[in-house]
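Lab notebook: predicted structure, single chain.

Context: the supervisor wants predicted structures on file for every construct in the current expression panel, including those that have not yet been purified. This is the next one on the list. No modifications to the sequence; it matches the entry in the shared construct table.
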Amino acid sequence: MSMHREDAVPSGLELLRAARGHETSAGIGLLLGMRFEDIEDGRLTLRCRTRSQFANPLGTLHGGILATLLDSAMGCAVHTTLPGGIGYTSVDLAVKFLRPGSIDDVELLAEGRVVHRGRRTSTAEGTVHDAAGRLLATGTTTCLILRDD
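Prediction complete. Output recorded below exactly as produced.
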């Protein structure tokens, strides 16, 4: 029995391109108000606006928000390289916080780029900039590719 294209499971790239320009509809993306922007094979950007609920005890942007944006952008960049039906999960996440960010309705831009594509693991790097173009944080990740074989 042959599988027709319309019966095929969409690739990671196809799934994410379908969400481009929209606020994500589930999970952490919905909670933070993330929107997918540029989506290519091995590269992805997303945007998010800060708000007062993102504050740390000092009143600046909580590092966990930046880490989550990096984890999402880098993981989704890996997802763009995967065929339909193949998942992934983060194995590690390293983040460098470079400067404090504002919680005053500032748009953040997170970018993830795949550095290595492997059969079992892929690695990616990422950045988060504020609306003025200042680099707030950088990160790296390794993702485990979830194959049945």
